[in-house]
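in:
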């Protein structure tokens, strides 16, 4: 019983010390953290492309959609298309629009590959 009271008192003291330290140094730390976060460019931590689709498919966009170089071999294009379509197929809950863009990207790269 006595040990519970001692532990409770130590816990409350720790909370008090932490609260005092936060009030003393917290505002400075918050402003420093905010400045640091504001200096980081938007999208730096995202592996996804920010922005929408172009009105007309181009090599760059097709490569971004499939996650490959626009000059990749036919085998790479086929493998990337299969991998992405398995994840985004409309029958498995994916978006029909995204699936259409994936197919369009594959067709665009296939059409522009050297025969």
């Amino acid at each position: 019983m006595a040990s519970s009271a001692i532990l409770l008192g130590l816990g409350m003291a720790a909370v008090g010390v932490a609260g005092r330290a936060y009030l003393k140094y917290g505002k400075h730390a918050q402003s420093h953290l905010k400045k640091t976060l504001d200096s980081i460019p938007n999208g730096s931590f995202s592996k996804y492309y920010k922005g929408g689709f172009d009105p007309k498919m181009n090599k760059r966009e097709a490569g971004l959609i499939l996650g490959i170089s626009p000059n990749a071999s036919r085998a790479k294009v086929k493998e990337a298309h299969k991998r992405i379509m398995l994840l985004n197929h409309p029958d498995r809950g994916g978006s029909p629009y995204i699936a259409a863009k994936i197919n369009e990207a594959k067709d665009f790269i296939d059409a522009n590959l050297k025969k």
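note: The radius of gyration is 27 Å.
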